[in-house]
UniProtKB/TrEMBL annotation:
Entries under CDD domains matching the protein: ATZ_TRZ_like
Domain Amidohydrolase-related residue range list: 57-404
Cofactor note: Binds 1 zinc ion per subunit.
Family indicated by similarity: Belongs to the metallo-dependent hydrolases superfamily. MTA/SAH deaminase family.
Catalytic activity reported: S-methyl-5'-thioadenosine + H2O + H(+) = S-methyl-5'-thioinosine + NH4(+); S-adenosyl-L-homocysteine + H2O + H(+) = S-inosyl-L-homocysteine + NH4(+)
UniProt-recorded name of the protein: 5-methylthioadenosine/S-adenosylhomocysteine deaminase
Pfam families hit by this protein: Amidohydro_1
Keywords: Hydrolase, Metal-binding, Zinc
GO MF annotation, one: S-adenosylhomocysteine deaminase activity
Binding site for substrate: E94, R146, H184, E214, D301
Organism: Tumebacillus avium
Lineage: Bacteria, Bacillati, Bacillota, Bacilli, Bacillales
Binding site for Zn(2+): H65, H67, H211, D301
Cofactor(s) essential for the protein: Zn(2+)
Underlying gene: mtaD
Length: 434
């Protein structure tokens, strides 16, 4: 099957800065095969044509940190500190969630992500068979982890599930699913437990995904326990010898940044600006990370702490926060922040050989953003409009691996209304009395 997109304003996201080009894009099977100019005979043979007049074509957005199934808990508990929110609300509610709840919650999150232009997400959760099945059924691309928290009971079961995720799902869905090892965080993973997880990652030659220095409370817990910063602690146990996704990384010292720089860190930071704002965690020093040569992508965190899974909201928040933190409106410009949400995010997830840019040979993960609306006119600077003025509802078409998952804002594989109805019922039962 081939799909021709014509008359688009194409942002390939390949260069240092973003320079839109006007032209066509050809998808054959799951690959992009031509960008800008498409040979006339190929155009004539296309099975399907989308006229993208007035639309911007971008690589699908990459959400570098999520707990997607928590969509079922959205809005259930608000305005609490992270530790309280987790231990008194989220964890008791999660203890009631079934495999089916995780499947439905992940599907609902997938519907929201597809509708707002995200094509790939990195997830950390439990009941990972259900998460993976939802990824298969939604058509999205995902990097999955079984979140690992040290606890007295059930350790064998957790490791068995993490192993099964690798064995059963790595590469599934025509390569749409990749798997990482997922230690939850420095304060929930003591050294011996982390070492066991590293062994698993090494066995499958896989990256790791972990929360890091999200709150000052976490920094204080690790200082009391080990006399180290969370980053120093993770260095001591050997985490930075691996490709790693460091979610949050809000409270890193200059010394911590130097540790990551001198480790020639493979992977990078998953910055979650809206979750950090809402939970009152602080502002991650993204500008310093970029100056140190670190790779930074963008995530939402779970829909329990993120307000929505719309990465366009995160793109704006990321830019605003750096500008206000540094008192410098040139900090984190539109081109940089759009790169973070696409190409750089793909690097953080070790998926940059497949996705993140629009180039012949890359997997066909493409979004079309309709720029006809009043808030996206006139077109003085398309890059700035997309970074600062667009939102998820402007996404017209979402394509993953060459398959159209949304066209004209209609989902092609998921029944959004049926999902919502089912989730409403389950959400009430899960949260009753907590
Ligand atoms: C064991 S699976 C992952 C685990 O993480 C919890 N979680 C959700 N949001 C956050 C956050 O912002 N920081 C740390 N942990 C978080 C989620 O509830 C799952 O239990
Ligand atoms: Zn998280």
């Amino acid at each position: 099957m081939s799909l021709l997109i014509t008359n688009a304003m194409i942002l390939t996201m390949t260069g240092e800065t973003v320079t839109p080009i006007h032209g066509d894009l050809l998808i054959e099977g799951d690959l992009i095969t031509a960008v800008g100019e498409v040979p006339a005979e190929k155009k004539a043979q296309a099975d399907e044509v989308i006229d993208a007049q007035g639309m911007a074509a971008l690589p699908g957005l990459v959400n570098c940190h999520n707990h997607a199934a928590m969509s079922i808990l959205r809005g259930f508990s608000e305005d609490l500190r992270l530790m309280e929110w987790l231990s008194q609300k989220m964890w008791p509610a999660e203890a009631r969630m079934t495999q089916e709840d995780v499947y439905l919650g992940t599907l609902l999150a997938a519907a929201e992500m597809i509708k707002s232009g995200t094509t790939t997400f990195a997830d950390m959760y439990v009941f990972t068979d259900s998460v993976a099945q939802a990824v298969i059924d939604s058509g999205m691309r995902a990097s999955l982890t079984r979140g690992m928290i040290d606890a007295p009971d059930g350790q064998e079961m957790r490791f068995a599930e993490a192993r099964a995720l690798f064995e059963k799902w790595n590469g599934a869905g025509d390569g749409r699913i990749s798997v990482m090892a997922g230690p939850h965080g420095p304060h929930t993973c003591p050294p011996a437990f982390l070492q066991e997880i590293f062994k698993l990652a090494e066995e499958f030659n896989a990256p790791l995904h972990i929360h890091l220095a999200e709150t000052t409370e976490e920094v204080e817990i690790i200082r009391r326990e080990y006399g180290l910063t969370p980053t120093e602690y993770l260095k001591e146990v050997g985490l930075f010898d691996h490709h790693v996704v460091l979610a949050h990384s809000v409270h890193l010292t200059a010394g911590d940044i130097e540790i990551l720089r001198s480790a020639n860190l493979r992977g990078g930071i998953a910055h979650n600006p809206v979750s950090n704002l809402k939970l009152g965690c602080g502002i991650a020093p993204v500008t310093s990370y970029l100056q140190a040569g670190l790779t930074v992508g963008i995530g939402t965190d779970g829909p329990g702490s993120a307000t929505t899974l719309d990465l366009f909201e995160e793109i704006k928040a990321a830019a605003w926060l750096q500008k206000v933190q540094t008192f410098d409106p040139t900090a984190l410009n539109a081109s940089q922040v759009l790169h973070m949400a696409t190409r750089e995010g793909a690097k953080v997830l070790a998926l940059d050989s497949q996705i993140g840019t629009l180039e012949a040979g890359k997997k066909a993960d493409v979004i079309l953003v309709d720029t006809h609306a009043a808030h996206l006119r006139p077109h003085h600077d398309l890059t700035a409009l997309l970074a600062y003025s667009a939102n998820g509802a402007d996404v017209h078409t979402t394509i993953v691996n060459g398959e159209v998952l949304m066209k004209g804002r209609k989902l092609t594989k998921l029944d959004e209304q049926a999902l919502i109805a089912e989730i409403e019922e389950r959400a009430k039962q899960i949260t009753a009395g907590i």
